[in-house]
Each structure stands twice: as structure tokens, then as C-alpha cells.
Amino acid sequence: MQIGELGEFGLIDRIAQRVQLRNPSSLTGIGDDAAVVAGNEKSSLLTTDLLLEGVHFDLTYFPMKHLGYKAAMVGFSDIYAMNGLPKQLVVSLGISKKFSVENIDELYEGILLACTQHGVDLVGGDTSASLTGLTINVSVLGECEPEKTAYRSGAKPTDLICVTGDLGAAYMGLLLLEREKTVFETNANAAPQLAGHEYIVQRYLKPEAARSTVLNMREAGVTPTAMIDISDGLSSDMLHLCRQSNVGARLYLDKIPIAKQTFDMAEEMNFDAVTAALNGGDDYELLFTLPLSLHEKVKDLGRVDVIGHIVEPENGAMIVPPNGEPVALQAQGFR
Ligand code: ADP
Ligand code: MG
Q1: In total, how many domains does the chain have?
Q2: Which of 103, 126, 134, 137 should be mutated for ligand 1, with most atoms under 8 A from CB?
Q3: Is ligand 1 within 6 A of the CB of residue 125?
Q4: Of 6, 8, 53, 90, which is most buried by a Cβ count within 10 Å?
Q5: Structural domain of residue 138, as residue ranges?
Q6: Which residue, 223, 225, 214, is CA-closest to 164?
């Protein structure tokens, strides 16, 4: 169905019909001039992310449902990175003529699946025609007790440096999808060769924000001294944390969690898996610091590895190979 048949208001109604509010704090959702969200004694956390077709995603291999899921997850991850819980979401779309109503349905299927899994309500958004492909803006409202809020700035020398999950898989997934796209462009009959690489492809197309770690930390009575989500790669994000905490770091290269499937793809592509982990990005794992005295609690946090420790600022931020000299971490920034 062409979006023109429904029109802007018809499309918004169609989205609104699919939404059931679940959080008591979501007083009014889609349908008025603004959503109404109840306040409480907690701090509100507010974050926004902009995703542009051709810059942040390529629709030749990104299914709309996955894109919706990932867009929501990127926002949720920022809230978890403050040690908070996401509660409300607004989604604004710029839609060009090439998209059908069914495409937008699929996008919202992914957004609403992410919301269901993370206990978040879609409470509004904005919809506009666009001349240049798809634009998605996601803003998320979350909450956290003020004393539990984790900033980038709280790390202290001797703190343990911890990371959730594994790193570099999403980047190897992206390289694989790009490789198969190039093959397809030269031979339209070539089927993409993704079999056996489901893990890394999934890590790129359908990242999972680290909600369980935040819940486990609450259960264990642990509050990180500092936290950041890994969106640009371990190097850049570790450097952000060090700069804002005015500390240095020692990361141990052989402690960095990297999945077997990531190593396998890296070997096949003649690429260094550690480079993917350090500079790849799109992992949406959490990087956080804990006081050394909480070492025994790390095992209660789920998939968390201790990969190093915080040092005095004059010692710099370095990565230590098993049998070699420390190397300074390098910021790569966005590509
Ligand atoms: P306004 O003219 O005040 O911006 P709109 O007609 O754009 O109002 O929006 C009407 C209602 O629909 C608002 O509650 C808005 O938050 C919601 N809405 C609009 N677009 C979307 C969307 N893409 N996803 C979810 N809710 C939306
Ligand atoms: Mg509007």
C-alpha cells in the first residue's frame, strides 16, 4: 500500500492502534500534542539518536524489522549506560516515496518488539515526507535513583575495568554483509554466503542492549563507579571514560572477550579480530569500572569480564599484549 493512500494521520493512527501502554508512568501516549509522563523521586534520563539511510544503515541488507529493533536498542543502551532503566520512547521518521505502508509496519514491528522485551512504551513521535531516503530519530526517557546513576566521570585508580558480552562481532558482521553486497552488485544471481556466520550477522543487525547486567548489578547491590556503552569501539569509549574521569587505564589484550565466530571471520578475511574489538564499534556492550573491593561480586553479574584496571592519569591509557610492551590506546571516532 502506498503511504499516500493512508496519509500522515492515517499512518499515525495505524501506528497508535498497535501500541498498548505498560508503564504506570506513561499517563498519555500517542494522540495529544505531547506525551504525559508521571514524575517521581528518581532522576529522569533523556537521550536521542539520529540514524540516516546511507550513513548509519544500508537497506540493501538491513531488513526494516531489524532496523526498527536496532534503532530502539541504540537508545535503550544509552539509558543502561547511565545505570538506568528505559521507560518511554518517541520515534520520528522522515520517509521517502520508495517506502510502502508495509515497510513502515515492519519497522514498527521491530521497534515494538524491542519495547516489549525492555518494558518500554512508545508514547509519540513525528512523521514527515523526506526527499532523501529514510531518517529515524529515536529519543528515550529513562529513570534512575540519583545515588545509582553512573557517569563517565567516576572512575578511580585501582578500580577494575569490566566489559559485558563480547566485542568485535558486529564489525565483522558488517564487513561480511558489505562483502556479500559487493558480490551481489557484480553478479545479481549470486546468493549471499552467510551460512555459518549467523552470530556475527545477528550482532550487527540485531544488537541486544545490556539490560540484564544493569538488573544483575541492582540485585547484587553493586553500583559502577563509571560506565559507558561501547558504540564506537573499546578504544574510543575507554578513552572517553578515562578523559572524563581524569584517570589512565591498563587493558590486558588477552582478557578482551572475542567470540570464536569473530576470530573465524577475521581469519577468513585476513583481518585482525583484536582490531575489530578495539576499533569496530556497534557492539552496544557496557564498559564499566568497579571498586577493587567488589572483585568477588563480578561473577554474580552474568557475562562480565574483568579486562584491566584504572591507573593514575600520568600513566596513560594503554593496552598490554601478553608478551610485549604496552601500546597507547588510539581514538578512532566515527567512520
Ligand atoms: P503535531 O502536529 O502536534 O506534531 P502530529 O500529528 O505530528 O501532531 O502527531 C499526533 C500524535 O501522533 C502525537 O501524539 C505524536 O506524538 C504521535 N506521532 C506522530 N508520528 C508518530 C510516529 N512516527 N510514531 C509514533 N507516534 C507518532
Ligand atoms: Mg508532528
Answers
A1: 2
A2: 126
A3: yes
A4: 90
A5: 3-148
A6: 214
d(CA 195, CA 306): 32
Q: Are residues 249 and 138 in the same domain?
A: no
Q: Is the CB of 314 under 6 A from ligand 1?
A: no
Residue in 312, 313, 300, 305 with CA at minimum distance from that of residue 288: 305
Residue with cell 499517563: 27
pLDDT tens sequence for the chain (335 residues): 999 899 899 999 999 999 999 999 999 999 999 999 999 999 999 999 999 999 999 999 999 999 999 999 999 999 999 999 999 999 999 999 999 999 999 999 999 999 999 999 999 999 999 998 999 999 999 999 999 999 999 999 999 999 999 999 999 999 999 999 998 888 878 877 888 899 999 999 999 999 999 999 999 999 999 999 999 999 999 999 999 999 999 999 999 999 999 999 999 999 999 999 999 989 999 999 999 999 999 999 999 999 999 999 999 999 999 998 999 998 875 44
CB neighbour class for 120 (10 Å; exposed up to 12, middle 13-18, buried from 19): buried
Is 335 part of any domain? no
Residue 130 CB burial class (10 angstroms; 0-12, 13-18, ≥19): middle
Domain CATH number, residue 70: 3.30.1330.10
Centre of ligand 2 to C-alpha 148, Å, is: 35
Q: Which ligand is nearest to the CA of 127?
A: 1
The finding on whether 127 has its CB within 6 A of some atom of ligand 1 is: yes
CA of 33 from ligand 2 middle (Å) equals: 8
Atom 5 in ligand 1: residue holding the nearest Cα: 126
